Amino acid sequence: MIALADCNNFFASCERSIRPELEGKPIVVLSNNDGCIIARSNEAKALGYKMGEPVFKVKDKLLRDRVHMFSGNMALYRDISEKIMCILSSECNAIEVYSIDEAFMDFTSVAAAEEKAELLRMQVLKETKIPISIGIAKTKVLAKLASHIAKKHSRRGVFKLYNKGLIERALSYYSVEELWGVGRKQTQFLNDKGIFQASQLAQADESWLRRHMSILGVRMARELNGIPCFELQETRPYKKSIMTSRSFKHELGSFKLLHEVLSNFACLCALKLRKQNTRAKKLIVFIQTNRFRSDVKSHYGSLEVQFPIATNDSIEIVKTTYIALDKLYDKSCSYKRAGVIVSDIIPDQQVQLNLFGKYDVEKRTKLMKVYDDVNRKMGEGTIRLSIQGVENKWGEKQAPISFGH
After folding, report:
1. Is 221 helix (H, G, I), strand (E, B) or coil?
2. 3-class secondary-structure state, position 220
3. DSSP code for 203
4. How far is residue 335's CA from residue 258's CA, in Å, rounded to a whole number?
5. What is the pLDDT of residues 21-37, one digit of tens each?
């Protein structure tokens, strides 16, 4: 049995999780530069707001409807996502994290699958304040369909699509464009051939599917008929992004202290990259004032930087972090939270060298190996960059944490 956990209105739910006073009120989350709507609470959906709708077209309506608008905060969303995935992975045999708000779980040996899913859903809600829906079925495609039903038609937020009659009814109700793994071009092709419902695809001739949609079309049809074809990818070879962030005990207004904090975060991200033999192409730095204080100036700044060459070099990542902070920092603000994210991660062996650049990858790789070997043998922090400081002047004496809010 496969279960799919899907977070409901994830970005909007994340914003509500740290603002409980918004329970029952309409929320929309906006894209970069607040250009369009990328997430909506159920209340906002009921008011007629659409995904991808340009804000300038509905700005007056948003104000009239008293909709709460928030700029997308990916650092927050990744943070909460990691918490949810940790909870899910601790309660099932195996897990495949499919996206920031979805995960497939192996429920093969789970005796009472629906009861287990309900308990899991309650645990996630209790610990993160994020509502999730869970669909259970024999295959991934059917589990995804079951999660749709759980989200829209089940009060419990859990639905098991296992009975033959239920499966037939569901396939006749849902269109092919609503199926997991069917894109726009495939939907258009199938519609042109007279195939509109999932039930029609399930009954299609396999030789015809193989000829026109390759083996993927055949597997899709088999999955709809309860025959597993897409295996659970239990573990990813490496993390696709790594974040180190923290909320501070005392707000920081000093550029020097913020630089020290972020340098420590950057070094921790670099170490994690080296431990999994990977390098990052991108760096994101963010700083944020205390959102719960109305008596001080509010500021949230985030900047994404592309490395010339994918790197896991602590020195290079710290240097780039400084450049980003210099552009983000507002001396009139005191900051409550900051973080570093490395993303677009690739294996060491996939790095494309810049033959004409000044940066010597081989030499820096050897330097970092010595750096790590000494710290492993003599204790973490034996060798450190001078900018990291010796004393922790920016919070309690503890390592940077990834889940602080």
Report:
1. helix
2. helix
3. T
4. 8
5. 999 999 999 986 678 89
pTM of the model: 0.59
Hey, is 236 helix, strand or coil? Answer: coil
Q: Does residue 40 register a pLDDT over 50?
A: yes
* Integer-rounded Cα radius of gyration of the chain: 24
φ, ψ (nearest 5 deg) of residue 240: -85, -20
Q: How many domains does the chain have?
A: 3
Contact 144, 180 (CB under 8 A): yes
| Mean pLDDT of the residues in the chain | 87
Tell me which amino acid residue 207 is. S
C-alpha distance across the termini of the chain, in Å: 35
- In degrees rounded to 5, what are phi and psi of residue 66? 55, 45
- Cα–Cα separations (whole angstroms), residue 223 to 107, 171, 307: 17, 12, 41
User: Using CA atoms, how far apart are residues 137 and 155, in angstroms rounded to an integer?
Assistant: 18
Work out the pLDDT band at 15, boundaries 50, 70, 90: very high
Read off the CATH number of the domain in which 27 is found. Answer: 3.40.1170.60
pLDDT mean over 387-392: 72
Strands 335-347 and 278-288: antiparallel
Same structural domain for residues 24 and 135? no
